[in-house]
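Researcher: Quick test of sequence recovery. Tokens follow.
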């Protein structure tokens, strides 16, 4: 029961931090989560948590790294293989060895092996922690890709180094040959298991698809379980790296899913949404836990009287600077080698090297690893300086986050232009979809085409909401003017039709009622809408009492009226030079579509027509994204974002069709 209450409490705190971050977006959500955790700990008091490394790595690290691997641009992974591998392996070793010696020299009470363990677990970077900052500053794509790429591998190398350093403390034995051999085995075997496992799970999913009654939720759950399966098989059966297994599995799974995303759009969008929620929750819980344990660790260390409080704070500051300094020096050395030795034409300047250093924020892996330190050694003695190590690691995480929060915005350009460009590209995609639908529209599928165009126009309005409020108000004003003019003309020609034609009074009354309700529907006042719904309920009861023959006559009369009104408005717009050309063209297109739609109302083929036109529109948009990417107009990151947006559009169309 206590565990359940604790989990619910964490989720409630997570909701609170998410709410707070929406109002103070200039502070990374990771810092907010840490702060809320600290406040909660101080309010509750006597809070403590002990972490089992096995389940912690399985529960948190496996899904997070799988997700990162699946969403990393693979062409960049190969293109940037040298800096990624250099940072992920060589930099980890340098940080562990050089930093470990420095920490042992700085704090002699920390054994050398324990100092190595501390610096090893401080080696892995956490790009998720810096995402809150990256959203509002322009960090070059190459730098972010290097950090994201190295984080996929240095999590494994850092954890292996950490594991052997801890084992050396616990058992008192260490072999460099055994450590190197074990690292190579765990790395390569883990990668092979991840790749093969991802392929087998993918084949299983598609083999089961021959059973039509299986719900899409089944396939989504398989994808969510994949990282846990890969991690457990690699760790428990083959004693290889579960971390590398889930990264390799994530990369392979993404490749398989991309090949089939057009076949399983609904499944893909549901999976993406669930993964977004899961990764946000797991990352949030990690930083909440950091905030929760920080006061306890601080109190334990501060009350031990082993070190003055000012000195402890100085230790955190000095070790944090040492971590960043080692990273900066390595980055400068590697860039010189890359430029002079490997003849890389892209010269990297000092500002970019500083950005690369600051973006390397420490976070999730560091917190998970340091919390998993054992309480005692094999001899029965307590683990040396365990609380101090946890305090130092937590302090360095905070230090790197705060430094990144302060200095990255100063060194980078705002991302406002980038965001506006992304919105504009989404608008172009929707316009391309509408153009492709119009190009394939004929008399037979006019109703379906009009319905689909209407859906895309709604999506276009949703995208436009991301633009400036002034621009949005101008668009709304133009749409308002167009709709008012259209309704005025509809009223004029409806009255003219009803006056000139000899129509049965009952049919005439029904046609007049429908047009009046249409005019009232233009009013968005909530009270007016409520009254309209009430009138509609009463009216429907009266309609249900009419004979089938009368209902048929009303339908014929309504169809004739609509054809007359739409044809008259189109002719009116073509012959009236006083109306704004843009509004006139939009009204002509709108009523031409209506005119064609009223001439063909065969509902039997409509769903199939919508599906056919939807595929045409989706392919047109996908082709547009590919063209932009090939011509270098968009980056790989933007292309991925637009493809996710395209999957969302496709899913909305499919769901609305089902409704």
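Model:
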């Amino acid at each position: 029961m206590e565990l359940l209450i604790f989990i619910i409490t964490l989720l409630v705190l997570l909701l609170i931090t998410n709410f707070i971050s929406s109002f103070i977006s200039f502070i990374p959500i990771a810092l907010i989560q840490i702060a809320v955790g600290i406040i909660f700990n101080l309010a509750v008091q006597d809070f403590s948590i002990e972490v089992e490394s096995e389940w912690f790595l399985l529960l948190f690290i496996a899904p997070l790294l799988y997700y990162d691997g699946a969403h990393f641009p693979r062409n960049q992974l190969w293109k940037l293989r040298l800096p990624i591998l250099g940072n992920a392996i060589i930099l980890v070793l340098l940080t562990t060895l050089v930093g470990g010696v420095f920490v042992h020299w700085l704090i002699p009470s920390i054994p050398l092996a324990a100092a190595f363990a501390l610096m090893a677990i401080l080696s892995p970077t956490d790009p998720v922690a810096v995402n809150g900052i990256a959203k509002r500053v322009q960090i070059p794509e190459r730098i972010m890709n290097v950090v994201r790429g190295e984080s996929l591998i240095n999590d494994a190398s850092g954890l292996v180094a950490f594991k052997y350093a801890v084992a050396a403390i616990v058992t008192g034995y260490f072999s460099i040959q055994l450590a190197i051999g074990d690292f190579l085995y765990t790395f390569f075997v883990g990668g092979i298991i991840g790749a093969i496992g991802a392929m087998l799970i993918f084949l299983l999913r598609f083999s089961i698809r021959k059973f039509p009654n299986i719900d899409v939720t089944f396939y989504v759950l398989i994808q969510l379980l994949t990282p846990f399966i890969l991690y457990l098989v690699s760790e428990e059966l083959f004693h290889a790296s579960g971390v590398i297994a889930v990264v390799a599995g994530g990369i392979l799974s993404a490749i398989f899913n991309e090949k089939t995303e057009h076949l399983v759009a609904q499944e893909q969008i549901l999976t993406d949404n669930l993964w977004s929620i899961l990764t946000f929750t797991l990352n949030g819980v990690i930083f909440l836990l950091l905030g929760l344990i920080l006061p306890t660790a601080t109190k334990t260390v501060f009350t031990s009287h082993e070190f003055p409080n000012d000195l402890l704070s100085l230790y955190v500051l000095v070790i944090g600077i040492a971590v960043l300094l080692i990273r900066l020096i390595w980055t400068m050395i590697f860039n010189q080698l890359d430029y002079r030795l490997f003849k890389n034409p892209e010269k990297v300047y000092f500002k970019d090297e500083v950005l690369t250093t600051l973006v390397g924020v420490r976070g999730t892996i560091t917190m998970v690893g340091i919390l998993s330190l054992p309480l005692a050694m094999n001899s029965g003695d307590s683990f040396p300086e365990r609380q101090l190590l946890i305090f130092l690691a937590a302090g360095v995480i905070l230090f790197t986050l705060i430094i990144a929060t302060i200095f990255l915005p100063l060194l980078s350009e705002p991302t406002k232009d980038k965001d506006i460009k992304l919105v504009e590209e989404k608008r172009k995609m929707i316009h391309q979809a509408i153009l492709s639908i119009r190009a394939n529209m004929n008399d037979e599928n006019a109703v379906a085409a009009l319905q689909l165009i209407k859906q895309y126009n709604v999506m276009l309005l949703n995208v436009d909401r991301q633009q400036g409020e002034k621009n949005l108000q101008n668009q709304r004003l133009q749409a308002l003017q167009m709709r008012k003019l259209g309704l005025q003309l509809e009223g004029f020609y409806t009255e003219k039709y009803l006056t000139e034609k000899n129509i049965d009074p009952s049919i005439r009354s029904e046609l007049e009622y429908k047009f009046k309700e249409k005019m009232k529907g233009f009013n968005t006042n909530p009270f007016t809408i409520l009254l309209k719904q009430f009138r509609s309920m009463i009216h429907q009861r009266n309609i249900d009492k009419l004979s089938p023959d009368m209902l048929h006559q009303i339908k014929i009369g309504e169809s004739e009226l609509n054809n007359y009104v739409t044809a008259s408005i189109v002719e009116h717009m073509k012959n009236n030079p006083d109306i704004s050309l843009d509004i006139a063209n939009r009204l002509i297109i709108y009523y031409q579509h209506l005119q064609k739609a009223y001439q063909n109302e065969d509902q039997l083929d409509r769903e199939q027509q919508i599906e056919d036109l939807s595929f045409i529109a989706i392919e047109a948009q996908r082709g547009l994204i590919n063209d932009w990417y090939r011509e270098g107009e968009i980056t790989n990151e933007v292309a991925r974002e637009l493809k996710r947006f395209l999957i969302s559009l496709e899913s909305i169309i499919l769901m609305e069709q089902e409704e």
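The chain has two domains: 49-280+351-414, 418-658.
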